[in-house]
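Can anyone check this?
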Amino acid sequence: ALVLGLVEKEKVLNMSNVPTGWKKLVSYPDADRFDLSSLRFATTGGGLCPVPLKKQILELFPNAMIIDAFGQTEMTPVTSFRVDADPDNIQERSVGKSIVEVKVVDEKGLDLPRGEAGEILYRSNTVMKGYYKDEEKTQEVMKDGWFKSGDVGYLDENGEIRVVDRKKECINTGGEKVFPLEVEEIINLHPKVDDVCVIGVPDEEWGNTIRAVVQPKPGEELEGQEVRDFCRGELASYKIPRTVVLVDELPRSPVGKMLRQTVRERHGEA
């Protein structure tokens, strides 16, 4: 209410937020009582902004376009931009065209053609000099002038970057690879779900199984089986969470990023 009130009072032209912050604004029950017509630019970053959320932003701020900035601290920090103004033209997981040199490689470091997913690499004079007093870690992420981002994605037919997930977050269950983001995107569509974090938990038979740690919306009664049933028909069977943990609140950093490691520590036991 305070943020939306300030937009109305100060006739704010540009506002930046992370997806978690945007989600809180668009889901505020009395948002439509504010005059938000002044906003021209809704800038988002710090994580992938899902298509449904982008559509809600454009609906709440009728005169704004979305500026989606993607990158990471090591690249100082932006590597690509995407502009969205038409709800019907928003592309799944697209963060736009790179403003630096970019390529996608396989596990052996070989270039992949457009449409095939692999690790995203960048090269630019904006790349960091290195991790402070950690030459070994620096060498791990730098190769022939290219910075290994740790992000898995691909270049589409238009040359835009499509993000799949963080490489280190990939869960191997029975030999199949599952990226948490694709499971989280489905669960977040459940009308009773406020937020979710998907993790892998050790399993003797499968190596890992999928667990969804779910924060229900305030006042909603939610059962774990409801979440699993919601995923059926939307995800392959091996991607459906084997277990669901319900929590009052998921841990996040001061800038709104999910603290996935904290979730694992609290809820990752077999």
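Reply from J.R.: I decoded it. The chain has seven helices and 15 strands.
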